Amino acid sequence: MSLSNPSTSPFSTSFNWRVNWTRLPSNSLKRSVYIDDRSPMERFAVNIISKVGLIGGSQLIQLGVKRKRIKKMIKDRKIIRHTLLLGNDEMPVYTLGINGAVIANIEEAYRLNYWLEYKTEDVLKRLVFFKLYERFCFSGADRVLLPVLPTPDPFSGAIQFGKTFIYVYVMRGDATDLMTYMKWKGSAFQERLIIVTESLTHLRGMQPTLEPLKVRIALDEDLMKPFEHIQHMFYLLEDGEFVRDEI
Asked: How many domains are contained in the chain?
């Protein structure tokens, strides 16, 4: 995807993104009589989509779901294809279909066309979440597909790393929603947290809110870079300043 400013994150809201959503008729809510759920990769794909709501096509492929498999899942109404647009460039994104919801065991909670409620920034946040997720899955010598868990707003999701649950907040624009959440949640929020932002300057003034938290910060640009250890990708907040985690 071509960018006018190569230093700007490809997931930035500063670009004129548009989403071409697929709108399904009401009869699309009827599940198939027989649903083939034998494929481990299909079960993995629908489960992580069910937890976060949406994933990019290239991200599915990166995680091991082959193009042929994706086409079959669309045909079987396990996932629904949409298009994220930037100028003349197109990027496929996928949400959960009714048969995928059955496999993910959330059929009763599933809402047809739930994706129409997503703003463009909601789409970008989910793509950034899975970009971070990739880094965790590929941090070692072998690929490990980690569990993903649903979270309340304003978080995009949580990644289970060993026995640790790491909440992920993707910052696009201001962080009013996070600040409000922390104001009311206060000391009751004891989860580990990763904030992904385009620039550390966007977090200036938030230090008093972040200092009591178990928080690390990642930059969009660092999600694209190789690091010897994933931990070195993050920044910590020490004495009111953001410093690279080198330990």
From this structure: 1
For the entire predicted model, the pTM comes to 0.93
DSSP structure string for 145-185: ---EE---TT--EEEEETTEEEEEEE-SS--HHHHHHHHHH
CA distance 47 to 214: 27
> Collapsing DSSP states into helix, strand and coil, what is residue 14?
coil
The domain of 131 spans 17-244
Q: What is the pLDDT of residues 207-231, one digit of tens each?
A: 999 999 999 999 999 998 877 778 8
Write the CA distances from 145 to 62, 131, 134, 164, integer angstroms: 11, 13, 9, 15
In this structure, what token pair is assigned to residue 8?
């700007």
Cα angle: 58, vertex 60, 65; to 5 degrees: 120
Tell me which amino acid residue 143 is: R
Going by their DSSP bridges, the two strands 55-56 and 214-219 should be labelled as: unpaired
Residue 68 lies in a domain: yes
